[in-house]
Here is the input.
Amino acid sequence: MARVLQNVDLKDLANRLLTFDTEDVENHVPLTAAECLSVCHMAMEAMRSTDICIHIKTPINIVGDLHGQFHDLLRIFDALGQPPESRFLFLGDYIDRGKYSLEVMTLLFVLMLLYPNSVYLLRGNHETANICCRYGFKDEIGQRMVRIQAHKVLGGFVRTFQWMPMCAIIDGQIFCCHGGISPNFMLQPFNLRGGQQANVQALNECKKPVEPVRPGILCDIMWSDPIGTAFSAQFSQSSETLTEAKWLPNKRGCSFSFSGQALEEVMRLFQTQMLIRGHQVAMNGYQSQLNRRCVTVFSAPGYCGVYNNISSILQIERLNDDSKSPGSFFLLRPMQRDPSALANLFWNELRDI
Ligand SMILES: [Mn+2]
Here is the structure.
């Protein structure tokens, strides 16, 4: 990798990406393999010193899944302001599905590098080797670069993903991650009731770089869902059947679905009030679940060109005592596009994952 590294002017690169025309669905921002690899290398170095679980202060805007919808990411910055003036926590799933994943991921790494106190990136289940090779990112790079370079660039991103943090705690009160909680939190050392600091420390015993391929705590943090949503197994959504089980197998074929009671217990252990996560389409942009202890934020409007969902960003100015309503949701409607544009914007295969 070192041989192809070049000096990248990060501000210039950010500017090239940020000034892309959101109406343009024909062209891409020209990104060379050398630029991508340099950005990956710098991002990796920057994330080397961060833990699996990071602490963040308000004010903050929380952004859910983006899935390669670069035009919509630019619309978010247009509406809410750019870093460093506006601060952002992203919940993962930057890539796959949308055909502008390279722009999304590169811009976010560049902004994180330029403004480390205003841009925080958590890892989603798509930022893993086996998922990003199957749902579009690998194909996009393959289409945009010659073979030998594509191979290197994909490898560079995959290695960089392995250094990303996976959860964040906002003002000591709100737990954020891509998927959700893990039954491992019920086991030692987490269940020793050592308080937030001890439990965060226990979580940070998980060392980076890591590729969470096997079932376990990191896999659950990126993959789990609350019970009562589309992926929470074979039960009807009648509350009676569900009150008993704290954890159910997840329909995605990986990880679990968690109940309100499971979440209560984990929130108590971490001394946090609620969970904010992404990972699932919410038709109104967000969804409050499990007695308002769990909020799903989804930030890809008109997801995949198939859904007609609105997207949202959760804006938290500062936390007050009424922690059940942490902030306000900024809503973004899908762009009205000519159907012929959709082929340029999305990979057509849509599978639930
Ligand atoms: Mn996801």
Observations:
- The radius of gyration is 19 Å.
